[in-house]
Design a protein that fits this description.
By secondary structure, the protein is an alpha/beta fold. It contains six helices and nine strands, in the order ααββαβαβαββαβββ. The structure holds S-adenosyl-L-homocysteine (SAH). S-adenosyl-L-homocysteine binds next to strand 2, helix 4 and strand 4.
């Protein structure tokens, strides 16, 4: 390794640590979540031209009009999903870059992730392979209908915003299972946690967010 490479490596390690400190300052407490964020190389989930901005706490474009979520939001959603006890099987709607999936993977037994845009999913699959993450099942499909063949799930995470709580997804949660998702139109969205009860569901608002919309069909 040349001194130049070493320099870049050390800088990026420091930059990553700064991001983790920022997440702590913003109120992320779960050290499993913080460790997973520290260990997940976000620069490999964006285009090379944007790699130098990968450890800024900001959403970035990933092509096809979509974005990789802001690190704080990934941490917040993962923490909200895990709060209340460990999860075995989690479904994700909206693989996108695959970053949220990769952060979640070490924290649960298996993640089933769905993406409607094939080119994005193929790119994410290559990233999971390169990083040797083996507990992710990917599916090119409209995830708004869930994945009946793998249901029920202990947890569901949705990274694109529907206008209301999708009942098809609630029905694929185990009793006591939880779902974290943004709800509403772009300029008035809230992050919501839904808990499946024996005869329905409860929900709580977490905070204001801004996600791309959940879209039906595949492309
Ligand atoms: N978690 C991703 C966020 C990507 S943006 C990341 O951090 O990179 C949201 C993604 O949801 C987009 O890639 C979009 O194509 C996808 N999406 C929107 N509606 C969908 C649907 N009905 N089913 C599956 N994926 C969907």
């Amino acid at each position: 390794m040349t001194p130049g490479n070493l320099g870049i490596g050390m800088t990026s390690q420091r930059t990553r640590e700064r991001l983790i400190q920022r997440l702590r300052d913003e109120g992320i407490r779960d050290h499993h979540v913080l460790d997973s964020m520290r260990n997940t190389p976000r620069h490999l989930f964006v285009d090379e031209a944007l790699a130098s901005r990968a450890y800024e706490d900001t959403a970035l474009p990933i092509g096809n009009g979509q974005t990789i979520s802001q690190p704080y939001i990934v941490a917040r959603m993962t923490e909200a999903l895990l709060e209340g006890g460990p999860l075995e099987s989690v479904m994700e709607v909206g693989t996108g870059s695959g970053y949220q999936t990769a952060v979640l993977a070490p924290l649960v037994r298996r993640v089933y992730t769905t993406e409607r845009i094939k080119v994005l999913l193929d790119q994410a699959r290559r990233r999971f392979q390169a990083l040797k993450i083996r507990n992710i099942v990917t599916k090119h499909t409209d995830g708004g209908m869930g994945l009946p063949e793998y249901a029920p799930f202990d947890g569901i995470i949705v990274t694109a915003a529907p206008e209301g709580i999708p009942l098809a997804l609630v029905e694929q949660l185990c009793p006591g299972g939880r779902m974290v998702l943004p709800i509403g139109r772009r300029d008035e969205q809230a992050l919501v946690r839904v808990i499946r009860t024996t005869d329905g569901y409860e929900h709580e608002l977490l905070e204001r967010v801004s996600f791309v919309p959940l879209v039906t069909g595949v492309s």
